[in-house]
Structure formats: structure tokens, C-alpha cells
């Protein structure tokens, strides 16, 4: 669905995105992770055809982005971090207007509003919506023309836990419908839950690219930490595959003295800091 080969771009004479190459398969959720200013939004703009002055190649759904035609956007849906709705119009009026911009038949507006719990507020002005309501409305705007490819920019930013969970469930539901999803975020928890693969970006460069599971398992997830009482609380660890050979652990289990046992899993944030030497702020 996306093929990027030796992509470079700069706003000034100083390089910004440097020799970047990656691909995204159909039906995949692919995450770009990095701190503010890392190049995530710039890369997204290139893939959307908004910044054509790049070097190398960036092909989206078979089209070189700098040479895109008007129909290019018929297969793409975009959910920016901030609302792009007309505040003086109602949710329904906004969706009717935006759906009229596409040749494809729109998905049923009432059905989309119901999915995100806005059916009872459909005729309320968007200016009266809360941030969470605007985020949900902005998301279904990107789905109106049933695009094959979704670009999502910080989709859970600023949302409370309930709305954040709802947003992530909707994203996964779209993946189950066969959508390819490109997610840009600095939220490592979102990336761990949602993404099939992630790319760590700092200073316009990809430092690593793999699945969250592989990244976590390669850095300590296979260790087991256990505790027991003996002159205070004691702690020990062993590799997961050697649990049956750890005599102390087996003795504690047999004597029912084990207090706790768990695997030691680093977060994506821990791994990001280890690989890039940077934090996500």
C-alpha cells in the first residue's frame, strides 16, 4: 500500500528527513513513533501529497505522491490531531458537506454517528461539542468515503481514558474491515496496543523498525522475577526458559512460600530511550 525508498526532505539547507526507506502492507497498522519535531508530521504530509519537493520515492496506493492526481484522495482518509470541522455547523451538516466532496457513495451518516455515540447530538453545533466529541466526529469524517488507507495523527491526544479506549476500539474495527492505517504518535501505549509494526523516528531518521512484540521480547521480556519472605522480602530472577532448573524457585513453590512472580517487560518507551538515547517529549 505504501512504498518509500531513499526519501529525503528539507525545509531549509539543513537536512530534515534523511534517506528514509520502508513499506506498509495492505491491512496493516503501521506506527511512526517519536518526540515532537522528529519528522512524523512532515512525513505524513509528504505521503498526503502536500510536500512535493522531496528526493527519492514515496508511492501511496500505486501513485508517486509528488505526481498525484485528484482521484488520489478518493482512497485516503485523514484524521488530524486537531478538529477540522466548521464550528457553526452541526455534526450532521459537517458530515453531509464533506461527503459531497467525494465521488464515492458515502457510508451512512447516521450509522457512523451511532458507532461513536453521537446520534443524540447530531444536530448540535460543533462549537458546543467537548474535545472528546470533536475527536470522535473528526474520526468518522475520515471514514465517510470508505477509504482503503487511513492517516491518523495522535488520535487519542488529550482524551480521557473512556474516550481513548473508544477511539482505539474504532481503529481496530476499521483494521478488521481491511483498512491500512498509518498512525503517527508519541504515545507508546497506543502503539503497543494497536500497531503491527512500528518505526522509531528521531531527527528525520528511522532508528529501528519491528513489531512491538519483537522489540519487547528482545529486551528482557523473557526474564522472570519472583519474591519471597526470608529475613524481609527477597527478590531473584531467572530466564523464562530456565524456570524448571531454578532450584530456589522450585523449592519456594513446593514450600508455598512464593509471594509473587511475573515477567519483566520493558515498555516501548524504555526501548525507545535505549535505542535512540532520546525521550518522547
Structural category is alpha/beta
Segments where pLDDT lies below 50 for 5+ residues? none
Indicate the mean pLDDT: 90
Record field, number of beta strands? 13
Label the overall shape: globular
What's the helix count? 9
Q: What order do the SSEs take from the amino end to the carboxyl end, as H and E? A: EEEHEEEHHHEHEHEEHEEHEH
Radius of gyration: 23 Å
What helical percentage do the residues reach? 25-40%
Arrangement of strands in the largest sheet? 6-7-8-3-9-10
Percent of residues in β-strands: 25-35%
Amino- and carboxy-terminal Cα gap: 30 Å
Q: Give the biggest beta sheet.
A: 6 strands, mixed
Account of the 3D structure:
By secondary structure, the protein is of the alpha/beta class. 29% of the residues lie in helices and 27% in strands. It contains nine helices and 13 strands. The strands form three sheets. A six-stranded mixed β-sheet has the order 6-7-8-3-9-10, with helices on both faces. Strands 2-1-4-5 form a four-stranded antiparallel β-sheet, covered by helices on one side. It has a three-stranded antiparallel β-sheet with strand order 12-11-13, with helices on one face. The relative contact order is 0.15. The model has no long low-confidence stretch (mean pLDDT 90).
A few lines on this structure:
The chain is of the alpha/beta class and 281 residues long. Helices cover 29% and strands 27% of the residues.
Amino acid at each position: 500500500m505504501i512504498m518509500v525508498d531513499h526519501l529525503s526532505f528539507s525545509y531549509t539547507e539543513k537536512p530534515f528527513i534523511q534517506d528514509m526507506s520502508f513499506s506498509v502492507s495492505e491491512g496493516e497498522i503501521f506506527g511512526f513513533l517519536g518526540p515532537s519535531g522528529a519528522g512524523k508530521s512532515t512525513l505524513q504530509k509528504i505521503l498526503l501529497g502536500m510536500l512535493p519537493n522531496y528526493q527519492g520515492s514515496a508511492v501511496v496506493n500505486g501513485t508517486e505522491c509528488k505526481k498525484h492526481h485528484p482521484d488520489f484522495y478518493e482512497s485516503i482518509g485523514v484524521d488530524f490531531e486537531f478538529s477540522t470541522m466548521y464550528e457553526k455547523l452541526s455534526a450532521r451538516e459537517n458530515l453531509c458537506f464533506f461527503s459531497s466532496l467525494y465521488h464515492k457513495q458515502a457510508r451512512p451518516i447516521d450509522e457512523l454517528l451511532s458507532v461513536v455515540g453521537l446520534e443524540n447530538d447530531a444536530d448540535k453545533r460543533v462549537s458546543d461539542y467537548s474535545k472528546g466529541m470533536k475527536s470522535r466526529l473528526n474520526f468518522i469524517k475520515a471514514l465517510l468515503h470508505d477509504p482503503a488507507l487511513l492517516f491518523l495523527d495522535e488520535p487519542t491526544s488529550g482524551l480521557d481514558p473512556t474516550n481513548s479506549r473508544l477511539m482505539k476500539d474504532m481503529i481496530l474495527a476499521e483494521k478488521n474491515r481491511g483498512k491500512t492505517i498509518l498512525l503517527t504518535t508519541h504515545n507508546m501505549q497506543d502503539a503497543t496496543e494497536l500497531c503491527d509494526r512500528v518505526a522509531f523516528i528521531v531527527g528525520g531518521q528511522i532508528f529501528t523498525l519491528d513489531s512491538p512484540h519483537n522489540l519487547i521480547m528482545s529486551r528482557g521480556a523473557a526474564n522472570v522475577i519472583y519474591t519471597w519472605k526470608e529475613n524481609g522480602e527477597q527478590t531473584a530472577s531467572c530466564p523464562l526458559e530456565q524456570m524448571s532448573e531454578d532450584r530456589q524457585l522450585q523449592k519456594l513453590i513446593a514450600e508455598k512460600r512464593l509471594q509473587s512472580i511475573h515477567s519483566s517487560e520493558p515498555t516501548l518507551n524504555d526501548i525507545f530511550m535505549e535505542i535512540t538515547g532520546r525521550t518522547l517529549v
